[in-house]
């Protein structure tokens, strides 16, 4: 049974999962080391209060968060990750649904995110949840390893 709740991304067990995510992405997209740094940090995600963790048997299994952008009606989905042992169980869909509800509660009308072509399962999750391709946004760069998606709420 999974439990989904807002949590602090700096909590030790959550931070360990996020470190796995960083390693996973660096292995999958080594050329992204040249990308500009994100304007948000785990401290700012914690302060914004929209970082969700799915736990199974008390252990973090998946996560995702919202980061504010210059336009308060638009938020960016960040740090979406499902640990390999829990993939295919619908956790990503659950987190997206909850993030969309949180975005609406914060007054947002649009959600944006960046994924990559080497993540076909993730791209299928986003497509099935109504996310459509768009151009680069904010600090991100147009690059063959970037796929930008958007959903109007």
- Helicity, in percent? 25-40%
SS-based class: alpha+beta
The CATH topology label is: Aminopeptidase
In the CATH hierarchy, what is the superfamily? Gcn5-related N-acetyltransferase (GNAT)
Keywords: Acyltransferase, Transferase
Protein name: GNAT family N-acetyltransferase
Domain N-acetyltransferase: 12-153
Organism: Phenylobacterium ferrooxidans
What do you see in this structure?
- This is GNAT family N-acetyltransferase.
- InterPro entries: Acyl_CoA_acyltransferase, Bact_Acetyltransf, GNAT_dom.
- Keywords: Acyltransferase, Transferase.
- It comes from Phenylobacterium ferrooxidans.
- Pfam families: Acetyltransf_1.
- With about 150 residues, the protein is an alpha+beta fold.
- It has one domain: Gcn5-related N-acetyltransferase (GNAT) (Aminopeptidase, 3-Layer(aba) Sandwich).
- It is about 30% helix and about 30% strand.
- It has four helices and seven strands, in the order βααβββαβαββ.
- The protein has helices at about 10-30, 40-50, 90-105, 120-130, and strands at about 1-5, 50-55, 60-70, 75-80, 110-115, 130-135, 145-150.
- A seven-stranded mixed beta sheet has the order 1-2-3-4-5-7-6, sandwiched between helices.
- It is globular.
- The mean pLDDT is about 95.
């Amino acid at each position: 049974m999974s439990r989904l709740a807002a949590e602090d991304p700096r909590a030790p067990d959550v931070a360990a999962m996020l470190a796995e995510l960083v390693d996973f992405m660096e292995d999958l997209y080594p050329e992204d080391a040249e990308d500009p740094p994100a304007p948000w940090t785990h401290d700012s995600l914690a302060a914004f209060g929209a970082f969700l963790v799915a736990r199974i048997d008390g252990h973090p299994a998946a996560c995702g968060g919202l980061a504010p952008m210059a336009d308060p009606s638009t938020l960016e989905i960040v740090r979406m990750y499902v640990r390999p042992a829990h993939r295919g169980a619908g956790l990503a869909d659950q987190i997206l649904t909850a993030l969309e509800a949180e975005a609406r509660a914060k007054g947002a009308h649009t959600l944006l995110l960046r994924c990559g072509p080497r993540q076909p399962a993730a791209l299928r999750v986003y497509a099935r949840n109504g996310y459509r391709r768009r151009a680069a946004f904010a600090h991100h760069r147009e690059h063959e390893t970037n796929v930008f998606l958007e959903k109007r709420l």
